Amino acid sequence: MLSDDEKTKLANRLRRISGQVSAVQRMIDEDEYCVDILMQIAAASGALGKVGQLIFESHVHSCVKNAMVDGNTKERDEKLAELVELFRKYARID
Amino acid sequence: MLSDDEKTKLANRLRRISGQVSAVQRMIDEDEYCVDILMQIAAASGALGKVGQLIFESHVHSCVKNAMVDGNTKERDEKLAELVELFRKYARID
Amino acid sequence: MLSDDEKTKLANRLRRISGQVSAVQRMIDEDEYCVDILMQIAAASGALGKVGQLIFESHVHSCVKNAMVDGNTKERDEKLAELVELFRKYARID
Amino acid sequence: MLSDDEKTKLANRLRRISGQVSAVQRMIDEDEYCVDILMQIAAASGALGKVGQLIFESHVHSCVKNAMVDGNTKERDEKLAELVELFRKYARID
């Protein structure tokens, strides 16, 4: 569960990312230089990764922690399997 | 320079990415499960990478190619230096 | 803790990776084509990522799990903080 | 083509990477802590990426440049297609 403070911060970041995606669209429409568009895309992608990192952090320190402390074996194992899956996804392995 | 056909395809992809970013925002607002949000972020990030790949491809086969064929030494060297910079940025080295 | 079976599998993978790194060195010495060398490097890098994924998996299902079940608050929090750090490192964010 | 100076520098880096891969093997054998092993793997992986970056740079400023200046259309197109493929591989898209 994300706190209200975390939500506000994430909303700000996501608003900025939306703006970056719109900027990419506009740059394409206006035939701006490809390399500048690619740099804008890299910026949006980095910002999105940062949002992922923040949510992962919050996830670990709330959901995972709670499942570990209070959950039953099944809930715990589920959380651990999800961590493995997230790692695979985000480390972009295979 | 992107062709009209490429622009249309990219616009479709970017519209979908905007939708994914909005979905992330909505999922956060509605307290959806962090792991689902993280999977949505990974999807948006992958889609953004694909847009980058397409623009890079077009860039290489138009701007870089033209600079190589018609450009002077300075223009050529600029294009090559940009390729190195893009590679560094996208391969996320250091 | 890695099981003997996991250790054998990882040793095989690491032997292969050592071979790939040696191959890169040999290819450089023999002036092989840069693009072939770069593909060999990408292969070694992917193989190394896979070893990381396997160790992470084992880590989560043994060390993290045990700390969650048997550990005290301090041990648990340590494991969780390490997960966040590993995620940041492997997702190559910032 | 890599210069002798570049080759020496790359050889040093590759020797260090071989050492890091051996260290991973030794750490596994000696049951060292998984997180430390994972950090060592991340270091080796980062070092390998840096070698890739250096070879890419040299490739662009020699092979690609030469093909652009002196090559025929077929050679040029080959180089450009390879750049696209390398970008896809290293940016780990799809």
From TrEMBL, chains A, B, C, D:
CDD domains reported in the protein's UniProt record: CsoR-like_DUF156 (cd10148)
Record-linked Pfam families: Trns_repr_metal
Highest rank taxon of the organism: Bacteria
InterPro entries in the cross-refs: Metal_Tscrpt_repr, Metal_Tscrpt_repr_sf
Biological process per Gene Ontology, one example term: negative regulation of DNA-templated transcription
Coiled-coil regions, chain positions: none
PANTHER family xref list: TRANSCRIPTIONAL REPRESSOR FRMR-RELATED
Family: Belongs to the FrmR/RcnR family.
Name the record gives this protein: Copper-sensing transcriptional repressor CsoR
Organism for this UniProt entry: Adhaeretor mobilis
Encoding gene per record: csoR
